[in-house]
Design brief:
Rossmann fold; 2 domains; 7-stranded parallel sheet; 36% helix; binds magnesium ion
Length: 197
């Protein structure tokens, strides 16, 4: 199987780190379970300037490297690779976050996994040309049998993969999301994802 795995809040606990950053920078105490929107500006009630500062801080290399691994992610992904599946990590992180993101994967025993940065959320203001970044059209030309995503904002991209199954990683900001088709199922943890294969 060709498998697409998202990075933030699928392999690591990004939103939990952003809750700490919002507290540290602005004194905003938002419990993780109350992060109801994928858009963190909306979830934390930030001004444009605060949101820019939050995103900048959250993408500093030392902060990216400090993100906690999601329970069981590394062991489960290695099991999936060992079973012969072709796995790619496809992140919407900014292109200039590639190096620390690559380092994080290597530090968590995921050095075999290729990582690609794709502008999933229309955040990049210019195109860069590297082996690790892709346009949306490059992404749409790829083929996947299973995608693991947490973000309802990314579902529209997955529709380009035809009959791809989608495991929606259960998070507070997607619990009320309408799943676009029967190909989508909600999963609570990595054990459940492994059992799908
Ligand atoms: Mg994500």
């Amino acid at each position: 199987m060709n498998i697409y795995i998202d990075f933030d809040d699928v392999i690591c606990e990004t939103a939990k780190s952003f809750c700490q950053i919002a507290d540290r920078l602005f004194g905003i105490k938002k419990p993780y379970n109350e992060v109801h929107f994928f858009n963190l500006q909306q979830s934390f009630g930030l001004t444009d300037n605060q949101y820019d500062a939050l995103m900048k801080e959250g993408h500093l290399p030392e902060i990216l490297l400090s993100y906690e691994e999601t329970d069981g992610a590394s062991i489960s992904i290695n099991k999936i690779v060992d079973a012969g599946h072709d796995v790619k990590i496809i992140t919407g992180r900014p292109f200039d976050s590639y190096e620390p993101s690559r380092q994080w994967l290597d530090n968590h025993n995921l050095s075999r996994l290729p990582l690609y940065c794709v502008d999933k959320y229309g955040r990049e203001i210019f195109n860069q040309n590297s082996t690790f970044n892709m346009t949306l059209n490059d992404l749409y030309a790829m083929s996947f049998d299973l995608a693991i995503e947490d973000s309802p904002a990314a579902f529209k991209h997955l529709e380009h993969f035809g009959n791809c199954k989608v495991a929606v990683f259960d998070r507070p900001w997607n619990k009320d999301a309408i799943l676009p088709s029967d190909n989508y199922i909600r999963v609570k943890n990595w054990d459940q994802i492994v059992s799908l294969l």
